[in-house]
């Protein structure tokens, strides 16, 4: 007995050729009752029936039996692993063949998986136009999604919203994916890292650490790609872990993690981006400790390694600008922001640029107005609580330096208020 891929497969083949069940049965020399039983998954197809079906409708290259289905799904799964691991050259090699086989299979589930994985591939190679088009196309088939399809779809939404710095929407998507995966059957290193990263950038420190620890555990013990542990995310997990530990005043542990990771990454070949990220993470820890000279030094080292078109480079530039501003080197900070405005569409760069443009000391009313406006926008619209708190800190410090004690106290209290909100959320 040869079982069809899914009970819907036979109906899809029939509908593709514009046949009624009666016409379909007649063309295959069987009863309409038999077709109804097969399409309702109440009966399995025999080998003779399957062979006849292939001959009649020229489906010899289409995966149609259970074993062929298993081979196709295995191919799709291996393709997904190559994408997740960042092996884009391998992913590109099999992409066309899998598209052909998947479409030929008449399997809605396999087609949906292929499209979701294709979106992941486009995301990995930074072809955002193709990514958006693919996500729009697959969105129109949401009514056909299984829970697992929904899980992968929300993961991709979370990643795209994170890149657009819409952290509230990103977090909602990741939470929906987590809710769908109640038994943690589908979660992997990349998912837990991305989830933890989003929580970290919003300021939810303890929750971020919890998900980063889950990512660490999977990275250490899971063999998921060519029998090798997935270490692709190791440097990034350690960087975010150390940064969040420093916010809990566990600075010693944070430096231990980063020093060990930096040593490991320097022993590798071609790990420049990872080395840059660790220097960025060191700079962020020093920034939190208000050791601006060491923070600036690490941000400058990070620049030597980071891809100038990547998101990590933009983040590094942003923190470097803030470090210079916080240490009173506003003109140098302005130079960083000018670069940021050129390479990023993010609104906060433009508002920070306008703020610095109006006053070298940030004491002018217009300048502070831009800073306040940006902070409020971050808090209310995108959920960038961490960055908004940096703005309030800078505003408070400049009021303090300008001897306006009442306003300085107000912004320091506001800073503490939002810090407590984040801590309560934990």
Question: How would you describe this structure in keywords?
Answer:
single chain, 426 residues, 434 Repressor (Amino-terminal Domain), 1% strand
What does it look like?
The chain is an all-alpha fold. Among the domains are: about 5-60, 434 Repressor (Amino-terminal Domain) (Orthogonal Bundle); about 260-340; about 345-425. The chain has 22 helices and two strands. Strand 1 (about 225) and strand 2 form a beta hairpin.
Provide the fold topology.
Elements lengths: L6 H10 L4 H8 L3 H8 L7 H11 L8 H19 L3 H17 L3 H17 L3 H12 L7 H17 L3 H14 L8 H14 L2 H17 L1 E3 L2 E2 L4 H14 L3 H17 L4 H17 L3 H14 L5 H16 L3 H14 L3 H12 L6 H18 L2 H17 L3 H21 L1
Antiparallel strand pairs: 1-2
Helix pairs in contact: 2-3, 5-6, 5-7, 6-7, 7-8, 7-9, 9-10, 9-11, 10-11, 11-12, 11-13, 12-13, 13-14, 13-15, 14-15, 15-16, 15-17, 16-17, 17-18, 18-19, 19-20, 20-21, 21-22
Concise summary:
Helix content is 76%, strand content 1%. It is mainly α and 426 residues long.
Query: How many distinct helices?
Result: 22
Secondary-structure element order, as H and E?
Answer: HHHHHHHHHHHHEEHHHHHHHHHH
The helix fraction, in percent, is over 70%
Separation of the first and last Cα atoms = 55 Å
Percent range for β-strand residues? under 5%
Can you list the strand order of the major beta sheet? 1-2
Average pLDDT, all residues = 84
């Amino acid at each position: 007995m040869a079982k069809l891929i899914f009970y819907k497969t036979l109906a899809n083949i029939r509908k593709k050729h514009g046949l009624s069940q009666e016409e379909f049965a007649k063309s295959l020399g069987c009863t309409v009752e038999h077709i109804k039983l097969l399409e309702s998954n109440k009966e399995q197809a025999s080998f003779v029936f399957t062979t006849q079906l292939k001959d009649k409708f020229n489906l010899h290259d289409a995966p149609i039996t259970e074993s062929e289905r298993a081979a196709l799904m295995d191919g799709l799964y291996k393709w997904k692993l190559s994408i997740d691991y960042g092996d884009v050259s391998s992913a590109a090699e099999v992409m066309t063949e899998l598209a052909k086989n998947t479409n030929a299979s008449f399997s809605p589930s396999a087609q949906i998986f292929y499209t979701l994985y294709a979106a992941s591939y486009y995301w990995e190679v930074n072809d955002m136009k193709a990514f958006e088009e693919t996500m729009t196309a697959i969105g129109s088939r949401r009514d056909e999604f299984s829970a697992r399809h929904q899980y992968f779809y929300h993961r991709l939404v979370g990643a795209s919203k994170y890149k657009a710095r819409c952290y509230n929407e990103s977090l909602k998507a990741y939470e929906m994916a987590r809710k769908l995966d109640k038994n943690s059957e589908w979660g992997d290193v990349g998912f837990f890292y991305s989830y933890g990263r989003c929580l970290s950038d919003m300021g939810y420190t303890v929750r971020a650490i919890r998900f980063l620890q889950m990512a660490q555990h999977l990275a250490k013990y899971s063999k998921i790609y060519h029998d090798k542990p997935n270490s692709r995310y190791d440097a990034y997990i350690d960087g975010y872990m150390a940064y969040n530990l420093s916010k809990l005043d566990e600075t010693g542990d944070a430096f231990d993690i980063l020093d060990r990771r930096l040593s490991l990454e320097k022993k590798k070949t071609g790990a420049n981006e990872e080395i840059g990220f660790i220097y960025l993470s060191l700079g962020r820890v020093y920034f939190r400790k208000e050791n601006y000279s060491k923070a600036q030094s690490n941000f400058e080292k990070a620049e030597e390694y980071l891809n100038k078109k990547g998101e990590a480079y933009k983040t590094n530039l942003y923190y470097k600008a803030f470090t210079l501003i916080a240490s009173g080197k506003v003109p140098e900070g302005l130079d960083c922001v000018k670069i940021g405005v050129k390479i990023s569409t993010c609104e906060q760069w433009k508002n920070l640029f306008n703020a610095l443009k109006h006053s070298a000391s940030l004491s002018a009313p217009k300048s502070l107005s831009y800073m306040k406006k940006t902070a409020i926008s971050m808090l209310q619209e995108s959920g960038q609580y961490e960055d908004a708190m940096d703005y309030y800190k800078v505003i408070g410090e400049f009021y303090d330096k300008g001897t306006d004690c009442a306003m300085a106290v107000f912004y320091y209290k506001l800073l503490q208020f939002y810090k407590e909100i984040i801590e309560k959320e934990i």
